[in-house]
Amino acid sequence: MTTPIKAVRRMPLWAKVLSAVVLVFALLLAGLRLAVLPGLGDIFGEETKDRSGPALLESIQDMSRYEAASGNFQIVVDLEKDTKYLPDAIKGTRVLYVGAGTVDAYVDLGKIAKNDVTVNKERTSATLRLPHAALGKPALDPERSYAVSKQRGLFDRITDLFSDNPNDEQAVQKLAARHIGDAAKESELTARAEQNTTSMLKGLLGSLGFTDVKVTYGI
């Protein structure tokens, strides 16, 4: 007499996904609890190894810019992303980020042509016409830039667990750099750069015997 074979019920796909998520959270919670116990902190300790290869020189460019001034800026970025028809607790992010960086102002001396420089026969008087000062690209300082707070919805937190870079701050860093660049344009950084360039040229030519040096801008 044969024994009837009982039908095996397969677990639905949504149940498998839910079980996997619960298991991941349970492992993370267990790891945090064990890490705080005396003598067990080394089990989950992290070790950083730098396996980077040597830096390769790709190109060399001759610089004709005179870096005449540099401005330090700081901006507090409040970036929020919402999803329609879903509360922030489910789907949405908000990052409060302090961005600190510098913007350099320079005068491109490479644009000076022969007719932009006039010298008298006695070589005691010189007139120079230079291009107006320009601003370089904003450079964020990683030592002084940091995230104050990060708020993420439940769905975003679960997604971050399977993301290659859950702490990606590229968007907020670009926004901070853009605000710093805008602030530099509204500042007197280029005017200061032209003043410093004029002082530098007058001092340099004065040491060469020129007693009358005039510097104008507007090539």
UniProtKB/TrEMBL annotation:
Source taxon at top rank: Bacteria
UniProt name for this protein: Secreted protein
Species name: Streptomyces lacrimifluminis
